[in-house]
C-alpha cells in the first residue's frame, strides 16, 4: 500500500482540515461579536456546528461528503460576508485558495476509489461565486462598515492563509510526484527476477561513467553462466532461475562498491572504477559463485561462470566498450570457461 496517499492519510488530512476550519470559525465568532456584526457571528456559530458534525462524517469515511460540505460552507460564508461586511476585509480571497484543495482531494479520490471528486466542477463554481461577489460589492452597499485597520489586518491574515495552504499542498504534491517518478524509473530499470539493474539501467550508468571524471579508470565485466542450459535441461526452469538469483545475490554481496546488472538471460554485467583491483575482485567472486548450492542440484554440479573485462579508453563509444568485454568473454569460453579474461 502507498505509504503516502492511502485511506488513513486521507482521513487524517480531512480531520486536520476540519479542526483548522473549526478553530478559524470559532475565532470569527469572537471577531464578529466584538465588531457587533450579529449576522456573521451567528453564521460562524452554524459553521462551527457543521465542522463538529464533520468529524462524525469523516469517521464514517465519507470524505467526498466532507469536501462537498466544506466547499458549500466556505462559498456560502464568503457570499454572506461580502453582503454584510463588504470585500475590503478580503474574506473572499479564501475562494482563490480552494481550487488546489479540491484538486488535492481529486487526486486522493482517483487514487483510492478510481473516480473523480469533481475538482473541476467545484473550482468553476468557486470562480463564478467570486465573480458574483465582485458584482455584490459593486452594486450593493455593505450592511456594516468595519474600521479601516480591522479591514487591513483581516485582509493581511486571509492573504497569508490563501498563500500558505496552496504552498503546502503544492509542495506535498511536487515531492510525492518526484518520489513516484523516481520509483517508477527504478522499477522500469530493474530486473524483476534478480532485483539487479536491467540492460537499460546499466546503459544509463555506463553513459554517466563515460561523461564523468577519471573515465579511463572505469572497467566493465560481462559474466555468463556457462552451464545454464545444462542446468535448465537437467533440473528444470526453477533451478536454473534460482541459480541466476543466487549469482545476483552473490554479486551484490561481494561487489558492494560496483554496479551490477542482468544483461541477458544468463549474462550479467559489473561496472567498477578501480582497474587495479578488478582482477582480484572478480577472481574472488568466481570462487564464491562456485560455492553456491542451489536447491535440488547435487553438490557435484557447480555453477561455472566465464567473464570478460574491458577497461575504458578515451573517445570509446559505449557500444564498443561492451563489445570489447563480450569479445573477452568469448575468449574465456573458448579457453574452457569458468575463468575471467581481461
Described by the principal axes of the CA atoms, the overall outline is elongated
Please state the CA-atom Rg, rounded to the nearest Å: 33 Å
Find the count of extended strands (DSSP E, 2+ residues): 5
Q: What structural class do the secondary elements suggest?
A: alpha+beta
Average pLDDT works out at 87
Number of domains: 2
- One letter per element, helices H and strands E, the order comes to HHHHHHHEHHEEHEHE
Explain the overall architecture.
- This protein has 342 residues and is of the alpha+beta class.
- The protein has 2 domains: 182 residues, no CATH class; 143 residues, Alpha-Beta Plaits.
- Helices cover 66% and strands 8% of the residues.
- Helix 1 runs antiparallel to helix 2.
- It is elongated.
- The two termini are 46 Å apart.
Tag the structure with descriptive keywords:
342 residues, alpha+beta, Alpha-Beta Plaits, five-stranded mixed sheet, 5 strands
Lay out the secondary structure.
Blueprint: H1 7-34, H2 38-59, H3 63-85, H4 94-113, H5 119-139, H6 148-188, H7 199-211, E1 219-225, H8 228-235, H9 237-254, E2 259-262, E3 267-272, H10 275-290, E4 305-311, H11 318-334, E5 340-341
Parallel strand pairs: 4-5
Antiparallel strand pairs: 1-3, 1-4, 2-3
Q: Gist?
A:
This protein has 342 residues and is an alpha+beta fold. The chain has helices at 7-34, 38-59, 63-85, 94-113, 119-139, 148-188, 199-211, 228-235, 237-254, 275-290, 318-334; strands at 219-225, 259-262, 267-272, 305-311, 340-341.
Amino acid at each position: 500500500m502507498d505509504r503516502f496517499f492511502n485511506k488513513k492519510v486521507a482521513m487524517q488530512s480531512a480531520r486536520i482540515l476540519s479542526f483548522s476550519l473549526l478553530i478559524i470559525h470559532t475565532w470569527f465568532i469572537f471577531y464578529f461579536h466584538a465588531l457587533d456584526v450579529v449576522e456573521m457571528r451567528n453564521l460562524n456559530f452554524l459553521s462551527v456546528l457543521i465542522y463538529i458534525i464533520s468529524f462524525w462524517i469523516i469517521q464514517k469515511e465519507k470524505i467526498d461528503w466532507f469536501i462537498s460540505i466544506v466547499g458549500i460552507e466556505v462559498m456560502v460564508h464568503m457570499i454572506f460576508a461580502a453582503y454584510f461586511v463588504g470585500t475590503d476585509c478580503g474574506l473572499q480571497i479564501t475562494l482563490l485558495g480552494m481550487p488546489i484543495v479540491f484538486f488535492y482531494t481529486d487526486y486522493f479520490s482517483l487514487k483510492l476509489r478510481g473516480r473523480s471528486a469533481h475538482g473541476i466542477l467545484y473550482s468553476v463554481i468557486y470562480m463564478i461565486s467570486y465573480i458574483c461577489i465582485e458584482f455584490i460589492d459593486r452594486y450593493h452597499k455593505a450592511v456594516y462598515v468595519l474600521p479601516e485597520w480591522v479591514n487591513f489586518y483581516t485582509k493581511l491574515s486571509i492573504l497569508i492563509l490563501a498563500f500558505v495552504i496552496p504552498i503546502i499542498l503544492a509542495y506535498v504534491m511536487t515531492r510525492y510526484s518526484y518520489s513516484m517518478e523516481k520509483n517508477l524509473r527504478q522499477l522500469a530499470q530493474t530486473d524483476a527476477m534478480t532485483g539487479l539493474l536491467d540492460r537499460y539501467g546499466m546503459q544509463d550508468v555506463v553513459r554517466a561513467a563515460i561523461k564523468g571524471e577519471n573515465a579511463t579508470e572505469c572497467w566493465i565485466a560481462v559474466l555468463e553462466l556457462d552451464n545454464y542450459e545444462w542446468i535448465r535441461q537437467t533440473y528444470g526452469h526453477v533451478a536454473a532461475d534460482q541459480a541466476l538469483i543466487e549469482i545476483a545475490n552473490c554479486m551484490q554481496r561481494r561487489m558492494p562498491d560496483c554496479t551490477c546488472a542482468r544483461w541477458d538471460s544468463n549474462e550479467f554485467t559489473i561496472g567498477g572504477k578501480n582497474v587495479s583491483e578488478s582482477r582480484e575482485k572478480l577472481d574472488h567472486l568466481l570462487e564464491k559463485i562456485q560455492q553456491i548450492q542451489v536447491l535440488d542440484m547435487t553438490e557435484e554440479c557447480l555453477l561455472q561462470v566465464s567473464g570478460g573485462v574491458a577497461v575504458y579508453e578515451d573517445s570509446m563509444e559505449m557500444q564498443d566498450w561492451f563489445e570489447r568485454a563480450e569479445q573477452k568473454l568469448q575468449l574465456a569460453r573458448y579457453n574452457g570457461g569458468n575463468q575471467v579474461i581481461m
